[in-house]
Write a structure and sequence with these properties.
This protein has 280 residues and is of the alpha+beta class.
Length: 280
């Protein structure tokens, strides 16, 4: 059912292609942003969501479980949209600056994902179901260092604990059997890590997808290629990504390319770009 809705939207929407009036370069007119997504499902009653809410070292106890978002929740659907070949190749060409292709993927790509999410919600509600899409819900609370989606906080000494959200697409994708985390705090799926996520909490009791892994980092080989690619040395082999270092770089990109911002060098030219990397 969700797959059909996703397929329908890919069919009827032109948002997956860069329009001439927004293209950052005439050669990018008509560029495709995403390939067809993959979908995973978790039960809303899966105890993993309790773990996310209660274990301090996972989500800093900020995660709000599906049953709080939607009392009648039965399932949580996670959707991973892999970037198109052109978006990935563009960003792999120069590891010092975000490519125009990737900037489109992040900015226009997120607009497309939000429209897809709205479309799914509208169709499901029209069919009499209740659903919540946290990424486009007013209750979503996001803290990115000193910036939030609610207010401005001026706290100064930042650690990774200052970067949190009341819903995490990556954690939901892990729960829904789509993949495991990687060193760069990405999600590695069978379609790779270069892509974007959205998710839906719904009152339909879908069959949950089996999680073909147990360890949180099972698909990451710790090859260190994402460390080498990072232009600002934000990733470390023993502690992963330092959000503040990455975030400051993204702030610089935003000033240079406003209103677009992105980097993603840790998601391209890496063994996990297009699939689950093989253990050397
Ligand atoms: S590049 Fe290597 S170390 Fe980094 S996330 Fe991918 S598999 Fe893991
Ligand atoms: S960690 Fe941040 S700055 Fe480094 S490559 Fe990834 S997105 Fe870019």
């Amino acid at each position: 059912m969700i797959k059909q809705l996703v397929d329908d939207f890919f069919e009827i929407s032109d948002g997956n292609y860069i329009r001439e009036d927004v293209a950052l370069d005439s050669e990018l007119n008509g560029m495709q942003l995403f390939d067809k997504p993959i979908i995973g499902i978790a039960s809303a009653n899966d105890p993993i969501f309790e773990t996310y809410s209660n274990k301090h070292d996972i989500m800093y106890q900020k995660f709000i479980g599906p049953k709080v978002w939607l009392k009648s929740a039965k399932s949580v659907v996670s959707i991973f949209l892999p970037y198109s070949e052109q978006v990935k190749t563009g960003n792999a060409n120069n590891l010092k600056r975000p490519s125009l292709e990737w900037l489109h993927g992040r900015y226009e790509g997120q607009k497309f994902i939000n429209e897809l999410s709205e479309f799914i919600k509208m169709k499901l509600e029209h069919a009499g179901h209740k659903c919540v899409i946290p990424s486009i819900d007013d209750r979503l609370d996001v803290r990115i260092g000193t910036r939030t989606n609610k207010d401005v906080n001026t706290s100064l000494s930042l650690t990774n604990a200052d970067y949190w959200s009341s819903w995490s697409e990556r954690h939901v994708a892990f729960a829904a059997g789509l993949g495991t985390f990687g060193l760069s705090k990405n999600i590695i799926t069978r379609k790779g890590s270069a892509g974007r996520l959205t998710s839906i909490i719904i009152d339909i009791d879908f069959k949950a997808t089996e999680r073909p892994y147990t360890d949180v980092y099972e698909y990451c080989t710790f090859c260190g290629q994402c460390i080498s690619n990072c232009p600002v040395n934000a990733i470390h082999i023993n502690k992963g990504k330092e959000h503040t270092v990455c975030s400051k770089y993204i702030d610089w990109v935003l000033k240079e390319y406003y209103p677009r911002y992105a980097c993603g060098k840790c998601q391209v030219k890496v063994p996990c770009q297009d699939g689950i990397p093989e253990t050397p």
